Structures are given as structure tokens and as C-alpha cells.
Amino acid sequence: MCFIGLLVGTKKTSRMKFHSFVYKYLLRIADNIDLLTTELLQNNGLKGLGRSHLEILTVLLRKKEMTLSEIALHIERRKATVTVLIKKLEKLGYCQRKVNENDQRSFYISLTPKGQQTKRVAFRIFSVLNQSMEAAFSTKESETLQNLLFKLYQKTKANSDM
Asked: Would you list the DSSP string of 9-50?
């Protein structure tokens, strides 16, 4: 779009403003959730951990043991990112690696007893996050928002796979 089109206020301009607005607030919401999650983790004795660590812990609480690739797929992060996150969780004593007997090149990640103890805290954190979000919307609005966000997620995921 040319500079004059921006000044005049065409339909493209209003769409750009809409997209800018959506992008801006999606980022702000993600930042707010990250800050709240980090604060809740720290207040519950899990200092130094963030939202992605919490995702890994909760996945392992449900699945017991997984390969690095499975975790990366499940939390939708790159393997390199998950490797860094797992190393920190290992260093802090929340998880451990076990060599895959079927493939010596890979290993399984599982929670240690200390990692198992995070279950109560993890579910409390998700409960607080859910309550804060549910308080903002009626049931119908929540359903609509979930559908719209999922649609947006699918579209942006498809575009990022190109």
C-alpha cells in the first residue's frame, strides 16, 4: 500500500489497523500470562522456571516419560529450544534422562520425585490462570473466543509451515 493510501484511510488501512490491533493485544496477553505464570511459579517455590518449563512438567506429569522429540511436538517448540529447557529442569532436579534401550542414540525424559511434587502447584497455577480468563467472559463469549483463537492459530500455523 502506498503512503497516500495510509493517509486517506482506505479499507486496506482499516484492515491493517485491525491486524495491528489484534497482533498488539495478542502479544500483550501472552506477556501478561508469562508474567503471571512466572510470579505464581516463584511464589510456589519453583524459582527460575517459566511457562515453557511448566508446560514440560505438566506434559510429563500426564505421560510419565517421553522422548525429546515427543515433548517438542507436544508443546510445539523446536527440539533445540526443548533441549535447553530440559537441561535447566535436569540441573534443578525436576527431571532426568534415561537411555532408550531400543535406540542408544535417543533417551527418555521423566520426572524425578522432586518433579512429581510439582503436580499440585502446576494445577493450582492453571486454575488461577483459567479463573482470571473465565472471569472476563460469559460462557458464550468464551466459546466464541476459543473458536476464533483456534481458527487464527490454525491459519498462522499453516502459514508458518510454508
From this structure: T-HHHHHHHHHHHHHHHHHHHHHHHHHHHHHHHHHTT-TT--
